[in-house]
Design goal:
There is one protein chain. By secondary structure, this protein is an alpha/beta fold. It is 24% helix and 27% strand. It is built from three helices and seven strands; from the N terminus they run ββββαβαβαβ. The chain has helices spanning 55-63, 83-91, 101-112, and strands at 11-15, 18-21, 29-33, 36-39, 68-72, 95-99, 117-122. Helix 1 runs parallel beside helix 2 (83-91). The longest helix has 12 residues, at 101-112. It is globular, with a radius of gyration of 13 Å.
Length: 125
């Protein structure tokens, strides 16, 4: 890459309980951001299906320069998003997309072509 902008890794494949992400070892849930990503370990922040994605879950994405966030709610929309998380993103002026996982992957991949996007992806329920 010849400029200073780091691109976000593209999601190459998604199926129940499995994701293939460009440059990363396949896994189940991921945190992705400009320049890379890693497995998303819910126990780090105490995330559970309810109340859902925590503000602490998105802080790491913002630290890597994410200006747009995509949050997946799982394949069956069982993962919620804590209202405090949405408030934090709004407060920081970050655009947020919340969707079922397959839809979220498509949105994320489209945005990754042109913007410093980050996302949290849950590949099961």
């Amino acid at each position: 890459m010849t400029d200073d902008r780091k691109t976000s890794p593209r999601i190459l494949a998604i199926s129940w309980g499995h994701m293939d992400v460009e440059g990363l070892t396949p896994g189940k849930d991921f945190k992705l951001y400009p320049g890379g990503g890693r497995p998303w370990d819910w126990s780090e922040t105490g995330t559970q299906h309810r109340p859902g994605v925590q503000p602490a879950d998105v802080e790491e994405l913002l630290a890597y320069g994410t200006t747009v966030v995509v949050l997946s709610r799982g394949m069956q929309l069982q993962l919620e998003v804590d209202p405090r998380t949405l408030a934090l993103l709004e407060e920081r002026g970050v655009t947020v997309h919340v969707a079922e996982t397959v839809e979220a992957v498509q949105t994320y991949n489209d945005l990754a072509l042109t913007q410093p996007v980050g996302g949290l992806f849950h590949s099961t329920c």
